[in-house]
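Lecture notes, part 5. Sequence design as translation. It can be helpful to think of inverse folding as translation between two languages: the language of shapes and the language of residues. The source text, in structure tokens, appears below.
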């Protein structure tokens, strides 16, 4: 007999959807490389939105339902049921949007409208939650402001995106990309990871709070200038903030006391891919044709490996509570198979490195091999999740009987 819990603190359907999208992203690369579509804009846009929206943003919106109220010590505005429905609508719209890029371009506008409707409704509740946080103490107000700017960037990205989907006007593409990748995804990671690294590393958090403030300020200003077309100034400011963030995270990881190392390794790799992306971005500013490699390193390397690291901790913690109750504190390392964790870590880094090299050299066959590595790594990670589920479910009855004696 398993213990019945209240509604899961992160909606499982969203995490399942995002992980399926992760697997599909590698299959898209393999298909594009093998079919002669590797350099076609619609295939590239399909991959970018599969990763940025279907994989990472769906997971982020789901996690923030739990994380944001806890960060600012308030209840989610309007209750969570409505927002969970919004995420489902958003996910359905994203799936149709990606399909439209590949098979039915006339559906891009309607698909964008569906996903934007779900996003807009979700953001309404998110801004309501942030408004509650603005009535709190100084720290809660500061965190609320930071999330407010991040959500504003997501909203601006969506507004530009729906305009482009209906008109097919490429003029605002750079602003759309900068706001989405830097203003939404990167600033979100900068902010959330400072909190989530505490349980993942157990190093006591940052020793340099002024760095965290500088990272947020430079990232915010840099994103605005990049979106406005001031790419040199904006890029330099964002890069300085990113380098300061990397220093802070590596310092926390170096002091980590949590002996479950795979999530920490994924996060360290994520930071290294961020540094690679900064180098590629600098080359772009100097005239190098490295745009595709730059975007891939940012999405699959920087953001993607950060998500993988959190999945190996937060995702497994959610899994444990589904079967063992909300009060369960089973360490994720006790449920995961360590050999599979390290296998997935190594294979994912190899996959990202091979595809980045393929994009720099314009070699479709090499990209296909990288996609195979990535998909095999994804299979290993999914198998590990299923093992963790089996172990959590198998021991749930024993845990409950001990707790109720």
């Amino acid at each position: 007999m398993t213990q019945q819990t209240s509604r899961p603190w992160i909606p499982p359907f969203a995490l399942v959807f995002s992980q399926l999208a992760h697997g599909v992203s590698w299959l898209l690369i393999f298909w594009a490389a093998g079919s002669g579509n590797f350099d076609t804009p619609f295939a590239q846009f399909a991959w970018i939105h599969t990763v940025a929206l279907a994989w990472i943003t769906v997971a982020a919106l789901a996690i923030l339902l739990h994380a944001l109220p806890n960060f600012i010590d308030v209840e989610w505005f309007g209750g969570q049921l409505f927002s969970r429905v919004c995420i489902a609508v958003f996910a359905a719209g994203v799936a149709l949007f990606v399909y439209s890029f590949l098979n039915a371009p006339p559906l891009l506008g309607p698909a964008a409208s569906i996903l934007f409707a779900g996003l807009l409704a979700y953001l309404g509740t998110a801004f309501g939650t942030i408004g509650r946080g603005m009535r709190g103490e100084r720290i809660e107000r500061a965190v609320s402001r930071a999330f407010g700017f991040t959500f504003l960037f997501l909203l601006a990205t969506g507004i530009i995106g729906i305009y482009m989907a209906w008109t097919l006007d490429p003029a605002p593409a750079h602003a759309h990309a900068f706001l989405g990748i830097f203003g939404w995804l990167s600033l979100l990671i900068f902010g959330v990871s400072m909190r989530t690294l505490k349980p993942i590393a157990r190093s006591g958090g940052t020793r340099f709070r002024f760095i965290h403030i500088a990272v947020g300020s430079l990232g915010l200003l840099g994103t605005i200038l990049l979106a406005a077309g001031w790419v040199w100034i904006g890029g330099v400011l964002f890069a300085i903030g990113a380098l300061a963030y990397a220093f802070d995270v590596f310092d926390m990881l170096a002091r980590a006391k949590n002996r479950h190392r795979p999530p920490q390794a994924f996060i360290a790799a994520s930071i290294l891919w961020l540094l690679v992306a900064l180098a590629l971005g600098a080359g772009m500013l100097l005239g190098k044709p490295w745009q595709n490699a730059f975007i891939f390193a940012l999405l699959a390397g920087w953001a993607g490996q950060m998500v993988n690291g959190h999945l190996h901790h937060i995702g497994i913690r959610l899994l444990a509570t589904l079967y063992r109750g909300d009060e369960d504190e089973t360490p994720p390392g006790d449920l995961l198979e360590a050999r599979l964790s390290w296998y997935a870590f190594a294979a994912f880094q190899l996959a990202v490195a091979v595809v980045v090299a393929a994009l720099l050299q314009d070699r479709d066959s090499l990209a296909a091999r990288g996609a195979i590595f990535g998909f095999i790594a994804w299979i290993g990670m999914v198998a590990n999740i299923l093992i963790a589920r089996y172990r959590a479910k198998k021991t749930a009855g024993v845990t409950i009987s001990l707790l109720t004696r």
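The translated text above is only one of many valid answers, since several sequences can fold into similar shapes. The longest helix spans residues 364-403.
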